[in-house]
């Protein structure tokens, strides 16, 4: 198995987490602490399906630029974390995503140079309070408390060198992605179905802004990768206490999240 790197979350004790590093650490490949989180919206199937459910067509501007929003890095949690729904939420959802971790700083990075700034990849579960999000999005600014409570990341960072054989000529990763709730498969997709390439995402994120080691870029949700798309009546309902979410991505492992009662 290829060497992997531990996830360092904001506020964690770096020394304790570094003790978990495998042979990669001895080779000088030390993971930076995750310091920011930009989440993109790069899978057309997910976007089109969710808009159709609201009676909306695809907005032409979506095809022109890879949009993203900033989420709260201090709400990142690791593999095996216990997560509760935020206050007033009755529609808790998972989102099956890839996460790219920047390893080399850069500003105004070109598409041609983008891969030179990548440390590796991990799995992201962008947990979402759909009822809160739906209310907020009517304003038109973007998600706020519908996302600002917990985003799971892990289980480890797989270095880019271990995945180069899965990067296609179109600059997309060919990795199968699966989501299970209580052991039942609900979602399945492939990372290669991204409309925008990773190089395009990096170039856009770094335009007039410096990306630093530890910056996390989310892909957005793969097609079928959430209950919102599949509909709760087809999936056993929204996430409730006692349920266990497993997001598995080929070569990257499995990220597990336990849904618990509010304290």
Structural description of this entry:
The chain has 263 residues and is an alpha+beta fold. It has a single domain (14-259), classed as Alpha-Beta Complex (Fumarylacetoacetate hydrolase, domain 2). 15% of the residues lie in helices and 29% in strands. It has 6 helices and 16 strands. It has helices at 14-18, 23-26, 44-53, 130-137, 198-205, 227-230, and strands at 36-40, 68-71, 76-77, 81-83, 92-93, 96-102, 106-107, 118-125, 128-129, 151-159, 176-181, 184-190, 210-211, 215-218, 244-249, 253-259. Strands 2-1-14-6-8-10-3 form a 7-stranded mixed β-sheet, with helices on one face. The longest helix is centred in the first third of the chain and has 10 residues, at 44-53. Mean pLDDT is 91; it is low at 21-28.
CATH architecture: Alpha-Beta Complex
Strand order in the sheet with the most strands = 2-1-14-6-8-10-3
- What do the pLDDT scores average to? 91
CATH homologous superfamily caption = Fumarylacetoacetase-like, C-terminal domain
Q: Specify the biggest β-sheet.
A: 7 strands, mixed
In terms of DSSP E residues, the strand content is: 25-35%
Q: How many H/I helical runs?
A: 6
- Following the backbone from N to C, one meets helices and strands in this order, namely HHEHEEEEEEEEHEEEHEEHEE
The N- and C-terminal alpha carbons lie at a distance of: 39 Å
Number of DSSP-assigned strands: 16
The percentage helix is 10-25%
Radius of gyration: 17 Å
